[in-house]
Design goal:
Blueprint (H helix, E strand, L loop, with lengths): L1 E6 L3 H12 L4 E7 L2 H11 L3 E5 L7 H9 L6 E6 L5 H9 L3 E4 L4 H12 L4 E2 L1 H10 L3 H9 L3 H11 L4 H8 L3 H15 L4 H10 L10
Parallel strand pairs: 1-2, 1-3, 3-4, 4-5, 5-6
Length: 216
């Protein structure tokens, strides 16, 4: 059972999401919260697997809540629900630890599936979110030019990002220490003009730079 916390300052939105999510046999909304401070308290009290977090709320907003939750010993997976009227929140929330972005108009059947994907440890992004992040990473032509100037190892790391690997997985795949991987990822984000690893991974996918499974 995937345990979920829904956070939104509109009670009707919370009720709507709860109805959708509770309709799935493997999902359970354990609590609702209407501001960031209450969200942090609810996470500590209920230990949900996934938090669906609104960003714009009175008092402690969603971004501040994400930052606070990220400091917990075992933070939950956080997926932001947004209307995208404040684009700058996208990259800030990802830096703070959000696992992805979904627009509030996501169809119910898609929402259920994407919550499952997030709970399994994967980044989830609606098509609108994906385009916004790619737009923020600069033009594809510029990125392709940068890609041609990367070292072989940098290209390998970027390909792993494009395949959705974590730093630990990249390290195991390329026989590198995790700290070394972090250094490569930081340099790649700087070179590509990306604000976070999610942007870099999406850009790698757009450029066809992904790691292929090893042949046995």
């Amino acid at each position: 059972m995937i345990r979920i916390l829904v956070v939104d300052d509109e009670p009707m939105v919370c009720a709507h999401l709860r109805t959708i999510l509770d309709s799935a046999p493997d999902l359970e909304v354990v609590e609702q919260a209407h501001d960031g401070a209450a969200a942090v308290e609810a996470v500590i009290r209920h230990r949900p697997d996934v938090v669906l977090m609104d960003l714009r709320m009175p008092g402690v907003d969603g971004l501040a809540a994400i930052e606070r939750l990220g400091r917990l010993p075992s933070p939950p997976v956080i997926v932001v629900l947004t209307t995208f009227d404040t684009d700058h929140y996208v990259t800030r929330a990802l830096r703070a630890g959000a696992a992805g972005f979904l627009v509030k108009s996501t169809p119910p059947e898609d929402l259920i599936g994407l919550v499952r994907v997030a709970a399994d440890g994967h980044t989830v992004l609606s098509p609108v979110a994906t385009q916004r992040l790619l737009d923020g990473a600069g033009t594809r032509e510029r990125a392709r030019a940068v890609l041609e100037g990367l070292t072989e190892r940098e290209t390998q790391v970027l390909a792993c990002l494009g395949s959705g690997m974590s730093n630990a997985q990249i390290g195991a795949h390329l026989f590198l220490a995790e700290a070394t991987v972090k250094g490569y990822v930081s340099r790649l984000m700087l070179k590509l003009g990306c604000a976070n690893r999610t942007q870099a991974g999406l850009l790698a996918q757009q450029l066809g730079c992904t790691a292929r499974p090893e042949r046995r």
